[in-house]
């Protein structure tokens, strides 16, 4: 018989039965390989950088990755500046187009008023 509360280590029914850990790791993803590209069975090289941090990447690859990260951040900041400039330009163009439309409407009213005969203007 099963207890309603379950015992120590019991899983809630919503999670289903407990499964043994698989050889493929979490969520079906294979665990990281310990073999390097230098040869099968060779351990992954571990390096210590200038700040005493452990590194799994070779120094050249780590430097290239840092350089790429810095270039990406620089590009993103320049892109943000560009987007701000474009937004300002769109606002200026919109404001100017409204001014032009208003001027067109005024000009149209004036020309229509000027084309009307004088008698009809005084009759109203």
From TrEMBL:
Low complexity bias locations: 28-45
A Pfam family annotated for this UniProt entry: IFT20
GO biological process: cilium assembly; protein localization to cilium
InterPro entries registered for this protein in UniProt: FT20 (IPR028172)
GO CC terms: ciliary basal body; ciliary base; cytoplasm; intraciliary transport particle; non-motile cilium
UniProt keyword terms in alphabetical order: Cell projection, Coiled coil
Main subcellular location: other
Localization per record: Cell projection, Cilium
Coiled-coil region(s): none
Region (Disordered): 1-45
Protein name per UniProt: Uncharacterized protein
Native source species: Allomyces macrogynus (strain ATCC 38327) (Allomyces javanicus var. macrogynus)
């Amino acid at each position: 018989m099963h207890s309603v509360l379950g015992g120590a280590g019991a899983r809630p029914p919503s999670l289903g039965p407990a499964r043994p850990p698989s050889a493929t790791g979490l969520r079906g993803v294979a665990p990281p390989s310990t073999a390097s590209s230098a040869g099968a069975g060779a351990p992954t090289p571990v390096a210590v950088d200038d700040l005493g941090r452990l590194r799994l990447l070779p120094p050249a690859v780590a430097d290239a990755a840092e350089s790429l990260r810095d270039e990406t951040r620089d590009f993103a900041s320049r892109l943000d500046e560009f987007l701000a400039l474009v937004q300002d330009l769109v606002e200026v163009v919109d404001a100017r187009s409204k001014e032009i439309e208003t001027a067109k409407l005024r000009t149209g009213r004036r020309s229509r008023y000027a084309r009307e005969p004088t008698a009809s203007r005084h009759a109203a």
